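EI: anyone free to look at a 286-residue chain?
SC: sure, send it
EI:
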Amino acid sequence: MHAIVEDSLRTTPSCFVPVDTDTTVELGQIMRNSVQVTKAADAISEHIERLILEGVLRPGEKLAAERDLAEKLEVSRPTLRTAISQLADRGLLTTSRSGTRVAQFLAPLMDPLAALLAEKPQVVDDYLEFRTSIEAEATGLAALRATEVDQEAIEKCIQRMKIAHKAEDPAEEANADLALHLCIYEASHNVLFLHIMRAIAELLHRDVFYNREHLYLRKGAREHLLSQHIAIAAAIEAQNPREAKKVAAEHIDFTSRTIAEMRRSNERMEASLHRIGRADFLANSN
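SC: here you go
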């Protein structure tokens, strides 16, 4: 590097040539430091990118403060700053005065999609058909690939569901239900399954397809859903992909049939209410 710097200096106009060798050595050191920082920043950038890809760092989450994160990664703050800048340029991180966050990189797709799908009954059937296609496969993969850490996360979700069930809290049960399925997608160790279903989970949070809490308010549904989720977790823990696929498919089938019945019940209620208000559409007989 020192020789390259000196060769380049010989070709520069005389007015820019350093007058002493100390300046040349200092310039060489600066260039070496710059290369080292760039290489370290590339490594940190790749590491954070992998964490985002694997779902460890999730869209919208705020990263630790620069000083704390630099200490944990054992790099200098300028190196970390360069890495963050690289990822921000690629749309994976966002920076502001409040800190650095994982970018909502699917939002440009999901926000208009949510508006397009909202309040369209036929979309519910399409969604459940889609879930039927991938739920069993993802659960089967989880039974094959789940690590001890994955198993613990799934068990925590089951315990959360049991507590909510005992407390007769349908809203919390619905949230624990969603969290469990995301844990299963994580345990499948298929990043496409994970990111696609994380995006769809956001649509579920917005009740785009159906109201999840209403599902848990349906008479008899809570007991069935809890037992089905326990069976799914047990099949994954037993590393039995065939059983895992079977109980996952049965779960989605039950959910589909229950939602269809909820929709028919709502339609019948609307018809009844229309009959009550029919007089508003008729001429006065007097």
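EI: The chain has two domains: 2-102, 107-274.
SC: 👍
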